[in-house]
Amino acid sequence: MLRIHFTDADLARTRMAAEPDPLWEIGLSLSRFQTRQGRWAHAAWYRDTRQRLSETGLDRAVRTTLLPLFPRAAYYPDFLNPAEAADGLDAGLAAIVATPVERIRHEVEHFASIAAAPAWAGRLVERDVREDLADCLRRYYDTAIAPYRERAQARIDAERSIRARALLHGGTEALLRDLGPTMRWQAPVLHVVYPALDCDLHLGGRGLLLVPSYFCWGWPIALADPLLPPVLVYPLLHEDPAPTDTAPLAVLLGRTRALVLRATAAGATTGELARTAGVSASAASQHTTALRDAGLISSYRHGTMVLHTLTPLGASLLRAAAKGRSVAAGHT
């Protein structure tokens, strides 16, 4: 069990990442190759990515370099998940390359003491080895993560919308109270299921960055070094795969349904959609069902309400419509 201790200052400084963290997603996606747990939720990604890795010849580097360095274990070096990655992949990779040698040596020694660290891990103190690793991580990201980035972003947008409502209605404690089945808020401590580890993390006024992850599965993850900026990466709840039948797209024609789809862009409840479209709640529910069956929106129950958000397909459709209107306006 990981116990995260909050002060009033920490509650005020707790925030949620707006985008997937590229390096956390790299490491956690590599875990998906090392277990069948949750395979159903990433089945299409697993199948397509294995094929792309083979076609690009990157599969060997994944087997010999990345999987040994990112094992599905209690620990791998913290410097592989730098805070700078919040500013994008380039910033994160640059931070890995620039990591002080003494920190690398210390973390690799700790890695070797509790996990099957690769024999070559000690060479990470050499800058050219880290540069080669950064290049490998970039190629893996382009092959395995980038094609799914829009889908992951849509899921994170939905998660942020849900948590924002909790925050507005009940403050930070309400946000922390309903983060998922592996976390329990008992003020002033967030209790987090953490296999093979029992420890306390005192935030000490630094606040906590919550990072919802598309590829995280099972239980949340934190950095091992308590002196680093506090981060808690936690899994998004996955639904069963959406239907692939495209026939329901035909029912999307019509002004009211277009209004409902547009209003869903910022996240909306059924009642809010009904008011926006000027229809009854039951009619709004019928429209959301049709949009959901067409793969354009996702619906998540949160307490007594149902929150509707766009899927990547729905977001693409709205962007295409907006682009079409812009092009048309430019020719008038």
Overall description:
It is a single chain. 49% of the residues lie in helices and 13% in strands. Strand 3 (183-186) and strand 4 form a beta hairpin. A four-stranded mixed sheet has the order 3-4-1-5, with helices on one face. Strands 2-6-8-7 form a four-stranded mixed sheet. The chain has a three-stranded antiparallel sheet with strand order 9-11-10, with helices on both faces. The N and C termini lie far apart (63 Å). The chain contains twelve helices and eleven strands. The radius of gyration is 22 Å and the shape is globular. It is α/β, with parallel strands linked by helices.
The portion of residues assigned to helices is 40-55%
Distance linking N and C termini: 63 Å
Give the topology string: H per helix, E per strand: EHEHHHHHHHEEEEEEHEHHEEH
Looking at the chains present, what oligomeric state does this protein adopt? single chain
Strand order, sheet with most strands: 3-4-1-5
Integer tally of domains:
3
Give the low-confidence spans.
239-251, 325-329
Strand content bin = 5-15%
Helix tally equals: 12
Q: Secondary-structure blueprint of this entry?
A:
Blueprint: E1 2-5, H1 8-13, E2 15-16, H2 22-32, H3 43-56, H4 59-69, H5 89-97, H6 101-114, H7 127-145, H8 149-177, E3 183-186, E4 189-192, E5 199-202, E6 209-213, E7 221-222, E8 231-235, H9 255-263, E9 268-269, H10 270-277, H11 281-293, E10 297-302, E11 305-310, H12 312-330
Parallel strand pairs: 1-5, 2-6, 6-8
Antiparallel strand pairs: 1-4, 3-4, 7-8, 9-11, 10-11
Helix pairs in contact: 2-7, 4-7, 5-7, 9-10, 9-11, 10-11
